[in-house]
Amino acid sequence: MPAAPETASAPRRVSRLRALDGLRLVAALMVAAYHYGGRGGDVTTAWGGSAAHQFPTLHTLFSYGCLGVQVFFVISGFVICMSGWGRTLTAYFASRVSRLMPAYWVAVLLVTAVFALPVVAYDAVSPSDALVNLTLMQQPLGADRVLGVCWTLWVEIRFYALFALCVVLPGANRRRVLLFSGGWLLAAVLAQASQEPLLDLLLMPEYAPYFIGGIGLYLIHRDRRDAHAWALTAVCFLIGQHYAVDNLWDATDPNAFAHRTAFGIIAVVAFGFVAVAAIALGWLSRANWRWLTVAGALTYPFYLVHEHLGWVVIHVLHRTLGVPSAATFVLTIASMLVLAWLLNRFVEQPLTPRLRAALSRTR
Questions:
Q1: DSSP 226-283
Q2: Residue 247: burial class (beta carbons within 10 Å; 0-12, 13-18, 19+)
Q3: pLDDT string in tens for the chain (363-residue length)
Q4: Quick one: DSSP state of residue 123?
Q5: What DSSP line would sit under 18-45, residue for residue?
Q6: Which 3 state secondary structure label does DSSP give 119?
Q7: Are 249 and 258 in contact (CB under 8 A)?
Q8: Virtual CA dihedral for 5, 6, 8, 13, nearest 10 degrees?
Q9: CA 163 to chain centre
Q10: Where does residue 253 rank: exposed (0-12), middle (13-18), buried (19+ CB within 10 A)?
Q11: Rounded CA gap, 172 and 156, in Å?
């Protein structure tokens, strides 16, 4: 039976994919494991030495956790295509701003305040840079970042803008989404070859395959027989794993825990694509437990606060109180999840709908 025509005015109604919420939290926990035990840098001050000494067996496994970001980007491509389908530009803009900003503003203020305390070993950014951080434009403006993870939000914002201009504004349908995705992927490859900084900034060749792969998987979710979407997703995986291996496989840099294997990197990238594909195809439809929705709600605030505030908690637990490394790791994750719940309950839940409603009003 042929599929019904797709129009921007008649979006397909879909039930909540709770397994996707669970996958979000898995990706966030991967990143947290990397920040706490899979890399060097400032976290060594918290531990009082290299994390490799704290986790002699697990630190190599933890070093793959940075690829949770790539998993996030695949999920984002899927979700933005799903949520932007059939929406007006105003509704799309209101949805994205209200989703990102309330928890982000509070996280910036919270981390700035904590790092300004005399007992904390880490330097706070200048007042001017902290204020610029509230705009989420600190990276292009060259200001110091309050949140280490906010670089990924700058990548997301550029994706949102491209999708808004090329798909949401004219109206989403299968043909337009495929043309946008294929055109962006080709343009991103050409941008990589040209080595032009402006094209790299706009087209993000290093990250485009993950977003576009997620878009392709959403098209497969709508019609699993869509050969064009399958081909698009496969090409995105092949290009995406190339970028991941090229950036992360460098066995000559032990200070960055760069003793990952090419096979391991490819496997984690494949996990991201396969996990979202399994959700898109309905293979995980039985994973419909309500707690997964809660897990999804905690993911974003957890992601925002876990790195820098985690350093503070690790220092207190491990160096001040003498808690063993493994227990410190678990307790730090748990404390950041509790803080994420507080941010969701007392910041996101009351402010997100109000901000969305305010931004959705048309004059």
A1: -HHHHHHHHHHHHHHHHHHHHHH--TT-GGGT----HHHHHHHHHHHHHHHHHHHTTT
A2: exposed
A3: 444 334 333 344 446 789 999 999 999 999 999 999 998 888 999 999 988 889 998 999 999 999 999 999 999 999 999 999 999 999 999 999 999 999 999 999 999 999 999 888 788 889 999 999 999 999 999 999 999 999 999 999 999 999 999 999 999 999 999 999 999 999 999 999 999 999 999 999 999 999 999 999 999 999 999 999 999 999 999 999 999 999 888 766 665 666 789 999 999 999 999 999 999 999 998 888 999 999 999 999 999 999 999 999 999 999 999 999 999 999 999 999 999 999 999 999 999 999 999 999 866
A4: P
A5: HHHHHHHHHHHHHHHHHHHHS--TTHHH
A6: coil
A7: yes
A8: 110
A9: 17
A10: exposed
A11: 19
Distance, in Å, from the CA atom of 235 to the CA atom of 244, rounded to the nearest integer, reads: 14
Which residue type occupies 209? Answer: P
- The type of residue at 62 is F
| Alpha carbon distance 124, 126 (integer Å) | 7
Q: Which long-range contacts (CB under 8 A, 24 or more apart) does 194-200 make?
A: none
* Selection from 52, 54, 72 nearest residue 256 by Cα: 52
- H helical segments located in the chain: 18-37, 43-47, 51-54, 59-63, 68-84, 89-115, 127-133, 138-141, 150-163, 174-194, 197-203, 208-222, 227-248, 262-280, 290-314, 325-343, 349-360
> How far is CA 215 from each of CA 80, 81, 96, 124, 287, rounded to the nearest angstrom?
8, 6, 17, 38, 22
Q: Residues 355, 24, 155, CA angle at the centre, nearest 5°?
A: 65
CA distances (Å), origin 327, targets 314, 332, 334, 351: 10, 8, 10, 35
